[in-house]
Amino acid sequence: MNPSTFGCDLARLWDSILAMTNFDSILHPVTICQVMLNFAANLGVDEATCLQETGITQQVLKDSDGLITRAQEMRLVENMIAALPQVSGLGFQLGLQYSVATFGVWGFALRTSRTLREAANLAVRYLPLSTAYCELSTIDEKIDFGMRLDASAIPKHVRQFFLERDAATGVNLLKELSLAGVNIKVAEFQIPTPEYAHFMEQACGVKPIFNSSRNAILFSAEDADKALPTYDSHLVRLLDEQCRLQLQRRHTTGVSGKVRELILGPLGFVATLDAVANALAMSARSLRRKLELEDTSFRTLIEEERRQLALQLLTASDMKLDELAIHLGYTDTASFNRAFRRWMQCSPGEYRKNQNVSDKETL
Predict the structure, then answer these.
(1) What does the CA dihedral 54, 57, 63, 69 come to, rounded to 10 degrees?
(2) DSSP annotation of 115
(3) Judging by DSSP bridges, how do beta strands 144-150 and 135-140 pair with one another?
(4) Could you tell me if residue 247 is inside a domain?
(5) Following DSSP, what letter does each residue of 312-362 receive, concatenated?
């Protein structure tokens, strides 16, 4: 099949879907797109074929903090499927390419959770911060614990692809979080038995059950409650709070709320006014004017979020100042120190020391 013809037909289908849903309003980091492009390239498909009719430019690809819409990602997937009809289990193979680091603060929060049970609950609670297409929910069956994947809301022509991608990603994250210390007991899928069932069995470590009444991955409840080797008690609450704030701001009305969402998410604190305006499909001048109408500015929003996160990290973590400066988007520690003195009339080190003294006095 000609990828161009396939893309045109599906473009019309997808445009009609978007007209009835709010699906296209969800933004994903371009790093997700880059993972797919690298995956396709290893299978002999060039970048131009994958990006045909997606609207994803080289400028966006080169920006590590860039954003793409779900519609753009969907079109990329459609192009990739059309170009690789001979590859079995394409979605499942792609899902195995994702790791905790792919998912930003959401993945970092999973990594520092105390147990797999807590990581799973956090994953579901802040699911909009992930790139999952399936709706996830936890399964607690006394001796077993796991995740259910509901793919019913995904368009039919790519439903199995995204179900397999999300399932394989879950398998990979489970192995990474537990450092391969947890074995999957049950992997069941609603799809018919595929020709690549053996490959899925190798990845899961257990023979999958097909034509099931649900899509689920289960492991023992005992394993679910074991402490994770990557658990960090200092960062658990901090990262949970960051996830909560990001999720809250995704529901904030107004342009300023959308800007906060972008700088706290994939664009990061190094985002420029032009980059944010581009992600919001408007000119920099329009963005500046709209923010003025909300009694704020782009620089003010950046400063407010930097300040809030800096105070949290200085209080709740032992992160070194040079690392903290980079995390907040500063080019060097000196720039961060100057900004912090402007906010708090003291240095970051002095603030951290005073907070530690205050905590001890409280105890």
Answers:
(1) -20
(2) B
(3) antiparallel
(4) no
(5) HHHHH----HHHHHHHTT-SSHHHHHHHHHHHHSS-HHHHHHHHHHHHHHH
CA 5 to CA 8: how far, in whole Å? 5
Residues 318 and 355 in one domain: yes
Residues 208 and 272 in one domain: no
Closest CA to 130 of 178, 169, 90, 89: 169
Domain co-membership, 125 together with 174: yes
**Angle, CA of 132, 24 and 295, to the nearest 5°:** 105
What's the pLDDT at 83? 94
d(CA 270, CA 309): 14
Q: Is the pLDDT of residue 7 over 60?
A: no
Domain boundary among 178, 203, 232: 232
Task: Provide the residue count of the chain.
Answer: 363
* 255 within 8 A of 273, measured Cβ to Cβ: no
Are residues 225 and 272 located together in one domain of the fold?
no
Range of the domain at 75: 1-87
Residue 244 lies in a domain: no
Are residues 170 and 149 in contact, defined by beta-carbon separation less than 8 angstroms? yes
Residue 136 belongs to what H/E stretch?
strand 135-140
Encoded tokens for 221: 């409840």
Domains held by the chain: number: 3
Which residues neighbour 52 within 8 Å (Cβ) at sequence distance 6 or greater? Answer: 3, 4, 7, 79
Written as six digits, the tokens of 299 are: 């620089």
Has residue 10 got a pLDDT over 60? no
Residue 222, token pair as written in the block = 């005992």
Question: Is the pTM value of this prediction over 0.85?
Answer: no
Point out which residues pair with 135 in neighbouring strands.
150
Q: Looking at residues 354-358, what average pLDDT do you find?
A: 65
> Residue 89: left (phi > 0), alpha (psi -120 to 50), or beta?
left
